[in-house]
Amino acid sequence: MSRYKNKKYQYHFTNDLYVALIALHIILGIFINQIPNFSKLYFIVVCSFFIFKLITVEKRDKTMWVLFGCAYIAAAESLFRMTGGGLFYEFSKYFIIL
């Protein structure tokens, strides 16, 4: 148990960051509603972001970014399906396996 005391995590999310992320997602929802092809662009950006993070992040942080990516893609799958933003129907399942 003592080996975990000195381990510092870099995932300190504050309330201000949560509010900013919620505001960002509200704005994204408005854009997706108003611009028909914006969901496809958003889908590509999200997938590219998490692949980029997995390639560039340090080894000790890689597990956490894999979990972030899997959770975000799994949660956003319904949005991508409703708006036609995904490449194909089961993309999130294959992305998580990747």
Write up what this structure looks like:
With 98 residues, the protein is mainly α. The chain has one domain. The protein contains 4 helices and no strands. The chain starts with 14 loop residues before the first helix and ends with a helix.
Distance between the termini: 32 Å
Outline the low-pLDDT stretches. Answer: none
Number of strands: 0
Q: Please count the helical segments.
A: 4
Coarse shape:
globular
How many individual domains? 1
Largest sheet, strands/sense/barrel: none
Mean pLDDT: 82
The gyration radius over C-alpha positions equals 16 Å
**In sequence order, what are the helices and strands, one letter per element?**
HHHH
Helix content: over 70%
What class, by secondary structure content? mainly alpha
Roughly what fraction of the amino acids lie in strands? under 5%
Write the layout of secondary structure elements.
Layout: H1 15-34, H2 38-56, H3 59-83, H4 91-97
Helix pairs in contact: 2-3, 3-4
Question: In brief, what are we looking at here?
Answer:
The chain contains four helices and no strands.
What are its keywords?
98 residues, mainly alpha, 4 helices, 72% helix, globular
